[in-house]
Design a protein that fits this description.
The complex is a heterodimer of chains A (277) and B (234).
Chain A: H1 2-10, H2 12-37, H3 43-61, H4 65-86, H5 91-112, H6 118-125, H7 133-152, H8 154-162, H9 164-169, H10 174-196, H11 202-215, H12 219-244, H13 248-273
Helix pairs in contact in A: 2-7, 2-10, 2-11, 2-12, 3-4, 3-5, 3-10, 4-5, 4-10, 6-10, 7-10, 11-12, 11-13, 12-13
Chain B: E1 2-13, E2 16-27, E3 31-35, H1 42-50, E4 57-62, E5 71-73, H2 78-81, H3 87-92, H4 107-119, H5 135-149, E6 153-157, H6 165-180, E7 184-189, H7 192-198, E8 201-206, E9 208-214, H8 215-218, H9 222-228
Parallel strand pairs in B: 3-7, 3-8, 5-6, 6-7
Antiparallel strand pairs in B: 1-2, 1-4, 8-9
Helix pairs in contact in B: 4-5, 5-6
Classes of the chains: A mainly alpha (277), B alpha/beta (234).
Chain lengths: 277, 234
């Protein structure tokens, strides 16, 4: 075990992946609690498909991937929020619409330009080799920003997540905070998706929150537990991926599934015993 | 002493007028019930009072309190049914008015939350998760939160919706108790019978106000007799 960890840290690409991944896992789990509770679980999935399309376009035009995908995904996030709040197409339908449209555009883009090569496969399912030193700096600074914003606005985020109309009535500008959450989610997804893969990144958002909610009954406990779970599952996932040579993204998701099942069982046992917390 | 007055207020959704020309005044200690059928504009009017929607004409004025200092008891949403939050967390969130740009709760906020928890008799539930409570208990928690937001005026949106008769009776007498202690109450309801039982002022809406005045006068109107089947004599 110790040897495995030692070996893990001897590869600089794994160290980079771990640094980026731990930060992304931390941030996405915090955002995830609000997104899951506000019934926006699929937003991560939708945005990552948009991210895939933008990467395909960037590749076709020979542009830097992040420069294209960050603005596109941020724009898509605002669009999603706007559609689901203001029109007759509600949240889940709006996300499904944008998600499949973006995927189709991405696939067409890939087909007419490069064809299905390893790059495309890496975008879909993630690659641990994708992390450059610039990504490390970007993800660490982003995560610090998200963390600070989350702590500063924690009480307001709780109020808006629990009851938006009450929050608005007490004078909280709920629209601004919803936009902030959408923006941060978009950034997190763009940074995380190249390692986790466009198809798997949303798991980092939903799993930790859902898992913690099985056992804990207070918001603070759910948030803290999600953060801890997300980071540890990521770490274990990468180690497993290294030890058994399986793709990193899928391996992290697998660890999350096991944790989810374990917590569901614990939650049920807790209910049976009657210590409802 | 007036704490709130509405003069000629009209409200619209996308240029579709749903509330027209409403005027009333609320004094400290009043218990006003806004009654009316579905789609009569009573909820829209309430949102106007809370500042969630701007009126297209007319004036809503507050005396001695800010529009944000209204304790609002909204209808429960689907999201809240399985929401992991402790009772204390929910009640404490009522202290988040825009007064100051404080980041964290102060000690007096926590004391206020504790005070209102005790006042509504939910002390034993303080550490429990909101999602594991009964409907009536959840309403008490939300009422305690509303009291944290305001000590002078609470606005209740169909507060007994979905409660069984015993819980309904409990909640109504709790609200009446708070009202006797000096809290002004505005309740939106389609239940005319309990409106005339508890309220001292009635505003009957059907897009425009059909009746506004003291309960005693309302009881003699045809519209009240029609709504209650003419069997209430208070």
């Amino acid at each position: 075990m110790l040897d495995l960890i030692k070996e893990l840290f001897s590869y600089s690409f794994i160290v980079r992946a771990l640094m980026v991944g731990v930060m992304v896992a931390l941030v996405s789990s915090l955002l995830g609690v609000s997104l899951v509770l506000k019934r926006y679980s699929m937003i991560g999935d939708g945005l990552s498909h948009v991210g895939f399309a933008s990467l395909a376009i960037a590749m076709a035009l020979g542009l830097a991937p992040l420069q294209v995908s960050i603005p596109t995904v941020v724009l898509a996030a605002f669009l999603l929020l706007h559609i689901s709040e203001n029109s007759k197409i509600k949240g889940d339908a709006a996300i499904a619409l944008i998600s499949s449209s973006a995927l189709a555009i991405g696939v067409i883009m890939v087909a007419v330009t490069t064809g299905m090569n390893t790059d495309v496969c890496n975008y879909m399912f993630g690659s641990i080799l994708a992390m450059k030193i610039s990504d490390v700096f970007l993800s660490i600074s982003l995560s610090i920003v998200v963390l600070i914003l989350y702590i500063v606005f924690y009480n307001k985020i709780f109020a808006i997540t629990f009851d938006e109309s009450f929050a608005r009535a007490t004078g909280i500008k709920a629209g601004r905070y919803n936009m902030l959450i959408a923006l941060l989610t978009a950034l997190t997804i763009v940074i995380g998706m190249r390692m986790m893969g466009a198809l798997l990144i949303s798991s980092l958002i939903i799993f930790p929150a859902l898992t913690s909610m099985r056992v804990f009954g207070s918001f603070k406990a759910v948030v803290v537990c999600s953060a801890i779970l997300s980071v540890s599952c990521f770490f274990i996932g990468i180690a497993t991926s290294f030890a058994f040579s399986i793709p990193a993204g899928a391996s992290v998701v697998a660890v999350n599934i096991i944790t989810f099942i374990t917590f569901t069982v614990i939650g049920e046992l807790k209910k049976r015993v009657g210590v409802l917390a | 002493m007036n704490i709130l007055s509405c003069t000629g207020v009209s409200m619209a959704y996308d240029s579709h007028v749903v509330v027209s020309d409403v005027s009333f005044a609320l004094e400290a200690g009043d218990y006003m019930v806004i009654v009316g059928e579905n789609g009569s504009g009573k909820s829209t009017l309430m949102k106007g009072l809370l500042g969630l929607i701007k009126p297209i004409s007319g004036k809503i004025e507050f005396y001695g309190l800010n529009q944000y200092e209204i304790g609002y008891l909204p209808q429960q949403t689907v999201v809240q049914k399985d929401f992991p939050a402790s009772v204390f967390e929910v009640v404490l969130s009522g202290c988040l008015t825009t007064k100051g740009s404080k980041i964290f709760y102060r000690r007096q906020d926590k004391e206020l939350a504790q005070h209102n928890i005790a006042r509504l008799g939910i002390d034993a539930l303080k550490r429990k998760s909101y999602r594991n409570l009964s409907g009536g208990q959840q309403q008490r928690v939300l009422l305690a939160r509303a009291l944290c937001a305001s000590e002078r005026l609470i606005v209740l949106d169909e507060p007994v919706n979905g409660l069984d008769p015993i819980m309904t009776g409990d909640l109504y007498s709790l609200i009446a108790e708070l009202n006797h202690a000096g809290l002004a109450v505005i309740m939106v309801s389609h239940d005319v019978k309990s409106a005339v039982q508890f309220g001292n002022k009635i505003l009957h809406m059907e897009k425009k106000p059909l009746f506004y005045g003291a309960k005693e006068d309302y009881l003699h109107t045809d519209i009240c007799k029609r709504m209650t089947g003419g069997e209430i004599y208070a």
